[in-house]
Amino acid sequence: MKIAILGGDGFCGWPASLHLSDLGHDVVIVDNLSRRAIDTELGAESLTPIRSITERIDAWAEVSGRTIGFHHIDIAQDYDALLDLLTYGEIDAVVHFAEQRAAPYSMKNSRNKRYTVDNNINATHNLLAAIVESGRDIHVAHLGTMGAYGYGTAGMKIPEGYLDIEVPTDSGERVGQEILYPSNPGSIYHMTKVLDQHLFAYYAKNDSLRITDLHQGIIWGTNTEQTARDERLINRFDYDGDYGTVLNRFLMQSAVGYPLTVHGTGGQTRAFIHITDMVRCIQLALENPPAAGDRVKIFNQMTETHRVRDLARLIAEVSGATVEMVPNPRKESAENELHVVNDAFLDLGLEPTTLSEGLLHEVEDIARRYADRADLSKIPATSLWTKEQAAGAPLTVG
Ligand code: NAD
Ligand code: USQ
């Protein structure tokens, strides 16, 4: 297959590109390098020393003998370049990772809210409109989020995207309907993924586009079999208060001797998936596309759930780290239960890589190796979910 990886320079996109290339697919990366620009804006770098996109691609060619193409395109802004690629590039499938993905970054101020909405919604809509205009039959696999469902307690296992309901008709009968599971996003970022869902439903219905939406949980880990082959292929490792996600942050904090920053009571339960399973899920999704005319295929791309304070406790136990309960900068329930259906990937043969002491140590070891690159002042989460912050108040927690 010829596969375009939109956002292929990012944390998920880079290892997914290498995995698919390694399987023999013809991979082309499309990225505007905005994530690297945001690093500069925030003064926060990946803990691991990631190479430039051209160095990465050259190193992969040297190590594997395989070529990966690169197009520097802003897919939210440069529609014509995207259309050109899709029309003449002989692309069979697109994996769409190219969005601003940090909830705290999206909540920092109105500029970031507007950027996140403009970037993510235009990126997704440009892609869908361009596929229709290209006249080609291109399967889209998009990275959505478990956060589209929200983090209340559902009282049921969250299904894979759709919910069967019964509604009373005007004549008093009850009829069955299938609806998208009610959304309840917890940040502007998560809201853009909810809006994406409706764009997908429309284009699948109106234009018979073949679309898979992967409702992904929090990724943890850093390297995959391919990125570990050469230091020049190393994946990014975000640990700062905006882009660092909880489990990788805790492992990095433990490695550098910083108390684990549990927000509030740590009662939030979230869905997780290891990075090596993420790349395998992308492969499985591409190998099992929906047919033209089908509804959007939605998979819950997660393998386990954990409560934040339990993760902190576990890491403290295995590594001797200390835990600090800090005021929660976010607006989220103090406690939630989370039970999720993930049968679609299991049925396709996914064998989950779940949390184990060995894997926790592996990530911590990587963090320890690059500990001298860490800027501890970037660890606290300073983006607040308040109106005052949006109105320009200084960014302080507590
Ligand atoms: P990332 O920020 O590391 O990578 C995103 C990439 O997309 C970056 O390289 C960025 O430069 C590029 N990009 C952004 N806007 C673009 C545009 N307009 N044009 C071209 N390129 C653009 O993020 P990630 O962690 O790799 O996440 C990838 C996707 O997976 C996101 O859509 C995210 O919502 C989703 N996801 C991530 C996680 C996670 O834990 N990291 C969990 C669930 C879902
Ligand atoms: N948290 C802490 N301490 C920290 C960091 C986070 O207690 O130091 C808590 C947060 O308050 C939250 C939970 O951990 O309750 C998860 O936060 P996170 O930053 O790890 O994850 P989130 O903001 O939800 O976003 C990440 C990715 C996003 C993806 C999402 C999947 O950045 O792109 O969509 O995970 S999910 O969470 O399943 O919606």
TrEMBL record:
Superkingdom classification of source: Bacteria
Residue ranges occupied by any NAD-dependent epimerase/dehydratase domain in the UniProt entry: 3-292
Gene3D superfamilies, alphabetized: NAD(P)-binding Rossmann-like Domain, UDP-galactose 4-epimerase, domain 1
A UniProt-annotated Pfam family: Epimerase
Assigned protein family: Belongs to the NAD(P)-dependent epimerase/dehydratase family.
The protein's name: NAD-dependent epimerase/dehydratase family protein
UniProt source species: Corynebacterium suedekumii
